[in-house]
Amino acid sequence: MQFTLFEAVIWSLVIVLAIIIVILIFYLKILRRNIRVKEKNNIKYREKIEKLLIEYIYAEEEGELLSKKQKAIIKQFKKGLVSKRKRIIITETFLQLDQQVAGHMIEQMNSLYKKIGLLNYAIKKLRSKQWHIVAIGIKDLRHFKVKRVRSSISKLINHHREEVRREAHLYFIELFGFEGLNFLDNLKVPLSEWDQILLLGEVENFEYDETLDLKKWLESNNDYVVLFVLNIVKLFNRLETKDTLIDLLQHKNAEIRIKTIDIITHFEILEAKEFIIQRFSEISDKEKVAFFKYLEKVAEIEDAMFLIEHVNNNNFEIKHRALKILKRVDVNLYNKLEKNSEDAEYNRIIDYLDVSYGV
Amino acid sequence: MEYDYIIRNIVLVFHYFFLVFTVLIVGSYVILAVFSSRETIEYLKKNSFVNYKDLLTSDVAPSISIIAPAYNESLNIVENVRSLLSTHYVNYDVIIVNDGSKDDSLEKLIKAYDLERIEYLINQRVPTKPLRAGVFKSKNPAFEKLIVVDKENGGKADALNCGINISESRYLACIDVDCLLLEDSLQRMVKPFLEYTDRKVIASGGVIRIANSCKIEDGKLLEVNYPDKWLERCQILEYLRSFLLGRMAWARLNGLLVISGAFGLFDREIAIKVGGYDTKTVGEDMEIIVRMRRYMEEEKLPYKVAYIPDPLCWTEAPDNRKIFISQRNRWTRGTIEVLKIHKKIRWNPNYGVLGMLSYPYWMIFERYAPIVEVLGMIYFIFLIIYQPLSWSFILGLFLLVYLFSLLFSFVAIFTEEFTYHQYKRKGIGFKLILTVFLEPFILHPLVLYAAMRGNYDYYFNKKKKWGVMVRKGLSKS
Amino acid sequence: MSKKKIVLAEDNSVLSLLLKFRLEKDGHHLLMAKNGKEAIELIENENPDLILTDIMMDYVSGLEVISHVRNKLESKTPILVFSSSGQEEMVLKAFNLGANDFMSKPLSPNELSIRVKRMLL
Fold this sequence. Notes:
The complex is a heterotrimer of chains A (359), B (477) and C (121).
Chain A: H1 4-62, H2 68-80, H3 84-98, H4 104-115, H5 118-125, H6 131-143, H7 150-154, H8 162-180, H9 193-203, H10 215-218, H11 223-235, H12 242-248, H13 254-267, H14 271-278, H15 285-298, H16 304-309, H17 316-329, H18 331-336, H19 344-356
Helix pairs in contact in A: 1-2, 1-3, 5-6, 6-8, 8-9, 11-13, 12-13, 13-15, 15-17, 17-19
Chain B: H1 2-47, H2 53-57, E1 64-70, H3 77-85, E2 92-99, H4 105-113, E3 115-118, E4 131-138, E5 146-151, H5 156-166, E6 171-175, E7 180-181, H6 185-195, E8 200-210, E9 215-217, E10 220-223, H7 230-252, E11 263-267, H8 268-273, H9 284-298, E12 303-315, H10 321-341, H11 352-386, H12 391-419, H13 428-460
Parallel strand pairs in B: 1-2, 1-6, 2-5, 8-12
Antiparallel strand pairs in B: 3-4, 4-5, 6-11, 7-12, 8-11, 9-10
Chain C: E1 5-9, H1 13-25, E2 29-33, H2 36-46, E3 50-54, H3 62-72, E4 79-83, H4 88-97, E5 101-104, H5 109-120
Parallel strand pairs in C: 1-2, 1-3, 3-4, 4-5
Helix pairs in contact in C: 1-5, 2-3, 3-4
Protein name (chain B): Glycosyltransferase
EC number (chain B): 2.4.-.-
InterPro entries (chain B): Glyco_trans_2-like, Nucleotide-diphossugar_trans
């Protein structure tokens, strides 16, 4: 075997790798030092900005429109804007305070935000080619309550990146309240659970508005809109949607049907009982379980026969709830039940019900 | 003459086999490094503007049960539970499964948390060993999230299954009780489950970081330190490589086969549908993921196994060789067992990435790599003895392999510096570099040895029990 | 009249600075804590006249601070908690543990100043 060519290749590779590694070692050293220095500087600059911001806010409280001191502070802020690193720190500091204080101060901060020119940077971000920059832009604009970019953001509600459209949806709800919900009319994309959690977090802050028509969204073609609005129905106790809710029990989407049963349970809508019992054999196990949770709240003695049919159900949860409810609504009938069966699960449930609830 | 010719050919076959294998390994590393850097950048972009706080106050945040099996953890159990109870999340409970401990764990818990025995109807959907003292809850409303179950000993998988039966939550966070979770762990881990609308996320895995020498007080991580022992240092480097490079890349390919048993989040319904953890293997954490994935593939349901690279879970790594070797020995046996149980999916196109990529990769580079490496060394020694090899060739080849391994360690360290930069102290950079250079001589031989022992034990020593890890306890390190 | 000592535990650095400025203008002496742990240390060492604390904080939550003051130190120092929206349950717990007053975020520093004056009477 002849190895000489092989050797040459190996040794040249070794040299190349060795050089790369030496470079990497030096680079690592420099990188680590830079990170340390940068972190230190960031902390210093952040402290400075925090102080300036607060001085500005209190300076205005004391007197006329723009004091000398305030003008000086604005100048200081503007100086920082040139550097991207400092811009980020300034924005972050503003945001940090934004949701924590109330009333006049917020307005002051928002106007300061415009005065120092940060607003322009945020609007510029909307035109970026990178999706995450666009998303950050919308986020800044919604936090600082900039209403005039409404039309450009309305084009983003069906954006292909969920992160971007999520910010756009939040923008509308946060700035325009119930009216902002109208973006749901044009929504063609899904709303993930994560989206819904964030949106509901904002919706919770709404003032109650009776005139809002939730019904049209409960009939939306977009199943995600239906799911989302069901949450709103529950949040604001919109009982007038009752008839629509009962229709939704037959929706083609199983998730919507289950969610509707949850809501009906929450409102204890009695009309749904007969409706579901009649089609009980056709519905899925998950719906059945949800329905029994509903029965736990609304069952009466006349439901005893229905319950008896299910005390031997194969599904543990249904069996358990059927027995438990039966015991509550008709204890005589419950006591007449065979207390010992071949089904070990059944025996355990009976044992549990008789021990923990007493006879 | 004839004889010499045959030997020569055999040598040549071996020669090309090892060459191809080496090229494959190096190539796969390069590819994984590329994928992982892409995934890391995407993850950082995605989460650069996320506000997790909304999840904390939401009524619609999904329920999560933390399930932590405990066996003879009396030393730290009270403190560990306290740390779990201080997680920042609304809708969760903590289920501690005392797996037939022979010490006073249960008594300590009862005393510290004011527990009382309650009647609890368990839906026995996964078979487990029976309860011993029963189910306990606290009388103090401050600890309302805590459930303690005392059962007969059945091993870790059995204890986890018991927790699965007790839980009524949508998601299960299965963890080692001695892990330290950062407060926002659940929020971050649950996010992928809620994000996707076009596929079901069945599990998400977290990074495991090494807590040795870190400053920990009252179950909180106060300061990240770099330990002094070389074994610990080397493991830190190894974990960085494996979690920041390897798993991140596999997450990109949706081909993750393992979620560390120390911290993972699962969809409870799917976990129950596949029958919970397998109590017969020592690789139960890997096995359940493979089984859940297999189930989704067979049902033709779109799914994903997600991965969160944030440093959320800190745990103590073995600090002496004996325990380290027994841990790796167990991992090796786990891998062999899991691959054997699921050999149906090997090179099976019906299982997509799982069958054609993940499984074969695991088989070739995790299962067989140590064996090939040892054979390679033997072959090399054989060559040195029987063939007049030049020393420059031997040295060159050795350096080449060595430098390549250094290169990947450096990639891992740079990833860490650019993303999480946990080892902030001045001077650690030098120690890290030193570790990169020494690790192939300190840790790698032990890993190889343990892997060979694992193979031996698997085939010839079937009765081998779990390696017992002696805990020092996080608070004392 | 000597200055009244107030411990302020709040992890949001800008907010805590804002409140500090406001309350110092009223003539109080402010002691700042970034988390519950620091708050407890300050309370033990300085024996303040009033405690202002956020509910959700790192290391030790506001609830634990209250519980520590009332149960461990057995002190009657008035406590005011800050809560965010959606933490109603926590506020109830805080009152059960012995908090005297609460304010929900977003805060108005002027309102806080008035309440602080009243609580220090």
